[in-house]
Amino acid sequence: MASLFVRPFQTMDLKTLLKISRPGLWLVYVWLYMWPTGGHGELAKSFKFWLGLVYCILPLNLMVYGMNDMADLDVDAINDRKNNYVYGAKATKQQLSEVPSIIVLANGLPIILMAALTGEWVWYITWLLLALLVNVAYNRRPLILSRRGPWELPCMAAGNFLVPILSCKLNNLPLPPLGSWLFHLCMLWRTHIWFEIMDMYDDAKTDKRTLAVKVGHSSSCVLVLTLTSAEAAVAYYMLHCIPLALFSLSGVVIFLCVEVLPIPESLIPQDKTSKKMMSNVQSLGGILLLFYVWSSGVFVRSNN
């Protein structure tokens, strides 16, 4: 136990810790928390709502990406896009050894407060244990599913979907309808596989056998296009939302231009950093659209 929990902030500094939490990706968990609350503006007056939102901004991201950085120390060492506030820090082994203690403190205290406010200790402690278990399965041996494609996809989805479940419980809301879950599943998976495509050559140099590494570039591209098209279909036929469907179709066009079609580099940069930036711009633009759609309650109304 002593080797697992090292006293924090011996070598870890706040700047590195902030980079580990990926501020450039905070909006993802913010959205997953906000999604079930669509159309419920009255929650802005609730302390529990804001407690959950703050928890999903920093502590939860520290858990997810901190454990990921601990597992990917070998891959990150040769990844030139690291050491920033979007893709994470290039932390030392000693700094990463302090991360478990920070994760326990940063996540344990807010969850204990939620349990104390609601009186439902068993539910919130169980939720935290499940979140830790999913991240351990994804990042740590013997399972280390992040390196055993395609199992990283269901594991990643399970972890992400714990966030809207927490939001519903904390804010006393019903679970969203099936169409909402399917839309987000397609969006999460196609974005994840696209990121794997961008990293597949660095990953292949190590033992990180992601889905993209296993099936190759062409098959991975087909998967992304299929999932993005399915996302558009769900948005149109199940959520009855044309703006969302158009957003998904724009993802098909952007992906084709960046990864599939032989477009000159003078028109669209083909280096990995530029591809990542285009993917992030599309994702962030989509999240801004989602917040707009959120106000109309598209994701929480019945899919009739």
UniProtKB/TrEMBL annotation:
Bilayer topology annotation: Multi-pass membrane protein
Pfam families found in the cross-reference section: UbiA
Taxonomy, superkingdom: Eukaryota
Keywords assigned: Membrane, Transmembrane, Transmembrane helix
The keyword Transport is assigned to this record: no
Signal peptide residues on this chain, from the entry's feature table: none
Transmembrane segments: 20-37, 49-67, 121-138, 244-263, 284-302
GO cellular component: membrane
Localisation per UniProt entry: Membrane
One function term, GO molecular function aspect: transferase activity, transferring alkyl or aryl (other than methyl) groups
Protein name per the record: UbiA prenyltransferase domain-containing protein 1
Organism encoding this protein: Perkinsus olseni
Lineage: Eukaryota, Sar, Alveolata, Perkinsozoa, Perkinsea
